[in-house]
Amino acid sequence: MQLVTDLEHWRQVRAEVGGSVGFVPTMGALHEGHLSLLRRSVAENETTVLSIFVNATQFNNNADLENYPTSIEEDLKLAQSVGVDLVLMPDYSQMYPDDFRFQMREDIFSRDLCGSDRPGHFTGVLTVVLKLLNLVQPEKAYFGLKDYQQYLLIKDMCAGLFLPIQIVGCETLRESDGLAMSSRNRRLDPTARSLAARFNQILYQATSDQEAIAELKSLGCGVAYIKTQYGRRFGAIEIESQGDSVRLIDNLVPKTLPAEGAAAESFVSGMPRQ
Predict the structure, then answer these.
(1) In this structure, are 208 and 113 located in the same domain?
(2) Which of 134, 223, 256, 261 is 20 to 30 Å from 43 at the Cα level?
(3) What is the rounded CA–CA span in Å between residue 115 and residue 109?
(4) Bridge partner residues of 222 (DSSP)
(5) Residues 6 or more apart from 162 whose CB is under 8 A from it?
(6) What is the end-to-end Cα distance of the chain in Å, rounded?
(7) 207 belongs to a structural domain
(8) Catalytic residue list contains 9
(9) pLDDT tens by residue, 171-207
(10) What pTM was estimated for this model as a whole?
(11) Could you tell me if residue 272 is inside a domain?
(12) CA 177 – CA 274 distance, rounded (Å)
């Protein structure tokens, strides 16, 4: 496995890669969910590229950025253990030589769900993903469906910009109690971790969005949104842990699909859904 931190060096390395390339972009703090994406890429492609880059432009909360977990040495060991070939790990100055003057923005779906209370979040996400796709030039890029809105926006972006890249959505991996695997779970103390396990259970069992909101609030969770659409129930909550607020998101098909979400949409922001 080769680690590359300089983009000029990366261009040389990439030029020598032949055959199919699979790509998994991450912000590090790898867990089994990330590893499942990497294993799939290794199985489906001749070369697998992992990127590790904590993208400051997608954080609208400085404390959230400062507290984002990092574990580079462990990440590299895990990447090697699943057969990753190349790791791209640039810094901010290399990824943003323009200092974020040039941005990729979507103005419809990015304002909904996570975008409703995180202004600019998806502009940061789409901008960095577009940069990484240009650098890696993969045939396939793999994204977890826990971040379902992100997956749809990236899929639409690639279709809208005619990028010859297959965006592959991979099912959410969960802990034994159902909590969606996330790097942010590392920030949960035992009490917060126990409370977090109720999140997906309530999303699944509630007969309406309003019922889910009320139940989560009764447990002491801050609720950013609970919304059923496209045949799924989406949610984002804040849980207090060790003096900090940890944001968790999830989505799933609820036990009882309420009328407002019964019909899965075939279009988001005008692009056909596969």
Answers:
(1) no
(2) 134
(3) 8
(4) 238
(5) none
(6) 34
(7) yes
(8) no
(9) 999 999 999 999 899 999 999 999 999 999 999 999 9
(10) 0.89
(11) no
(12) 30
